[in-house]
Design goal:
This protein is mostly helical. The chain has a domain of 157 residues. Helices cover 59% and strands 0% of the residues. α4 runs antiparallel to α12 and α10 packs across α11. The radius of gyration is 23 Å and the shape is globular.
């Protein structure tokens, strides 16, 4: 077994960065950054500047890398806020459709899903969420007044985004087609891929993961403006959000406007190619 590396002081971390070729103009400021951010987290932002031998390309500057980190942090906030709007809309839309198609408790019947659906696991997950969130007022209310029966429009509030994505994927094909065509004017398989991509993006943002210079594992389908270069990039992920975000005015005035603002603020430090943004990104991202 390879032994675990011993802990290093902030001063030793500074020296390690310098030994690899990083320019540090203000050591005191750099130590403050490392104390706030964590050396291991910050070094992930050095990836675009790292050679095959782990040294850095000439001119790599600590302050510039930290500004890329700050750009990434602010971008996460914008994206997470956008996902919140999408998630709430999807909850409402799916619950309304399901209730009026299958009834208030139709989600309990395995016949109202396709063959891929694993109903026992699904019900176990619901029971687990009820127990974990038993202090929520609406959970207490339905447990006491309705002997633990939750109509779809309440139980769906316990679903994570991942559960919402799976819930849609497990619906009968005619239900998927209806939702995809009515609200997103797309093929049902495309909507499924967008929801899955959004789930991954949400999890990354929720755990403060890096978005900059990252290839996403899931590839969204049905987005013609994407190609092999930016399909797996942050731009591809944001394009997916645009398609799932139904309020055009709010998208343009909040999400798009904020993205435009931080790109303008950090354009001297970031490279658009590192996040998959094409030259005409503004035209493509605006609704």
């Amino acid at each position: 077994m390879i032994p675990v590396k011993p802990p290093t002081t902030f001063k030793e971390q500074i020296e390690k960065l310098r030994a690899r070729g990083c320019i540090i103009d203000d050591e005191s400021e750099a130590i403050q950054v490392l104390a706030r951010v964590n050396y291991y987290r910050l070094t992930a932002y050095f990836l675009p500047f790292r050679k095959a031998d782990s040294s850095y390309f000439p001119g790599t500057n600590f302050k510039k890398v930290y500004r890329i980190y700050e750009f990434d942090r602010k971008m996460r906030h914008i994206i997470f806020s956008a996902i919140e709007e999408i998630e709430i809309f999807v909850r409402s839309t799916f619950a309304y459709y399901h209730a009026h198609t299958f009834g208030a408790l139709g989600y309990l019947d395995h016949k109202n899903y396709n063959q891929k659906h694993k109903h026992t696991e699904f019900m176990a997950q619901i029971d687990s969420e009820k127990k974990k969130q038993y202090k929520e007022l609406f959970v207490k209310h339905h447990n006491s007044k309705y002997t633990g029966q939750f109509p779809i429009w309440t139980i769906i509030e316990l679903f994570s985004f991942s559960s919402l994505s799976k819930f849609y994927a497990d619906l009968p094909v005619y239900s998927q087609k209806h939702l995809a065509k009515t609200f997103y004017q797309c093929h049902q398989n495309d909507l499924s891929s967008w929801l899955y991509r959004c789930t991954i993006l949400r999890n990354i943002c929720a755990h403060f993961g890096r978005l900059y210079y990252r290839n996403f594992s899931a590839i969204p389908t049905g987005i013609p403006v994407l190609d092999n270069t930016n399909n797996r990039s942050l731009f591809g992920a944001i394009m997916t959000l645009k398609l799932l975000y139904t309020d055009a005015s709010k998208w343009n005035n909040e999400v798009f406007a904020f993205i435009k603002k931080i790109i303008s603020e950090y354009i001297a430090d970031i490279q658009l190619s590192h996040i998959g943004f094409p030259a005409d990104w503004e035209v493509k991202l605006k609704k």
